[in-house]
Amino acid sequence: MLYKRSSELFVEANKVIPGGVNSPVRAFKAVGGTPIFIKEAKGPYLFDEDGNKYIDYINSWGPMILGHAYEPVVNAVIDRAKKGTSFGTPTALETQIAELAVAMVPNIDKIRFVSSGTEACMSAIRLARGFTKKEKIIKFSGCYHGHSDSFLIAAGSGAITFGIPNSPGVTSGTAKDTLLAKFNDIENVKALFESNKNEIAALIIEPVAGNMGCVPPQNEFLSQLRQVCTENNCLLVFDEVMTGFRLAKGGAQELYNVKADIVCYGKVIGGGLPVGAFAAREEIMNYLSPLGPVYQAGTLSGNPLAMAAGYEMLKALNTDAAIFDRLDEKTAYLEKGIRSVLSAKNIIYTINRVGSMISVHFDEGAVCDFETAKNGDNDTFKKFFHGLLKRGVYIAPSAYETWFITDALTYEDLDYTIKAIDEVADEL
Ligand SMILES: *Cc1c(COP(=O)(O)O)cnc(C)c1O
């Protein structure tokens, strides 16, 4: 494949955009090479500026669960655009999508729409702090909740011991209010509650972690967290930006039958437009301005184009309940295929999967937290990534990302992908 035009565009982009990208994960820094500039997409396929075609396993990092340029969404956006793109007033459409979301998800009474997953998580934490009148939060190493200050605290002994922010620009004052816990380690969480008695406003978690590869919660981990939070008057916040409307209609809350106090959404809920949302039971949501004292706002929140896209997406997922089964079957088929070709070639690997979230790790032990996720062999991943790209299969350019399966994929696409992996395995 030739990437001539992409390479030229990347040079131009670098002159006016830092690193040539508006979000770092799009750069190929972890795998080397030049990012591919996409011109258009349809169904499960991407087409780049050089005319190359790819089967897409990123799907805009989650939103395109029914494939690219999904017609009901595209048509709804076109229709709405003709009627005006933003008013800064309430619209009927906002109530329509809110009613639908509340009906699809267990355990929420009210929902507020924002413009990104970052905003949703940031606002959820402010709300939790206002509601509980406490300041500290617990987050898990390897979990991502957007780029707001409180969450940019990751693993590393320095960060754990001293609360040192892992991004310059985050003040140590902010960092000290974020406590880091180990995913899948309930004793570690209990110890944090013990040493910070009556100080923890919220515990935020990706119920299925998707930002260190896909890392499922083990055994009763989520229900144990539920219990510890209740005992400590701490709000349990599920960051379902990735899992919401993907693992089931009601997301991870439904799949694992655990009720969170506040739930954050993004990605699928916007159908590919910039949307996030956070939701909770009435008592908590009424704490938000203009009813309550916790301030939160947005000029483009509930934007008509974004709401039209989100509404069509949720409607499709709500109408055809078989979508989630189909996604699971397709992803299970892919998993089985990858296992058989990698095992046949004696490659050391681990595959994690929950529904249509799947990740391949080049490491033989279980991948159950950030420490084990980091053990993967990055050189092997790089070869794997480029080998697949060359064959027209586009996975995320990082070993720490989940693949997102779309319902638009056909079994032919999956067979092609498995065959490509079989060929690439010879080069690893
Ligand atoms: C993507 C993501 C976010 C951030 O959402 P943005 O829309 O990128 O701001 C937050 N939490 C999780 C779990 C995510 O996957």
Automatic annotation (TrEMBL):
Catalytic activity, reaction form: (S)-4-amino-5-oxopentanoate = 5-aminolevulinate
This protein's pathway: Porphyrin-containing compound metabolism; protoporphyrin-IX biosynthesis; 5-aminolevulinate from L-glutamyl-tRNA(Glu): step 2/2
CDD domains from the UniProt entry: OAT_like
UniProt enzyme class: isomerase
Primary localisation category: cytoplasm
Cofactor(s) in the UniProt record: pyridoxal 5'-phosphate
EC number in record: 5.4.3.8
Subunit note: Homodimer.
Family matches, as HAMAP family: HemL_aminotrans_3 (MF_00375)
Family membership: Belongs to the class-III pyridoxal-phosphate-dependent aminotransferase family. HemL subfamily.
NCBIfam families documented for this protein: hemL, PRK00062.1
Protein name: Glutamate-1-semialdehyde 2,1-aminomutase
Source organism of this protein record: Flavobacterium jumunjinense
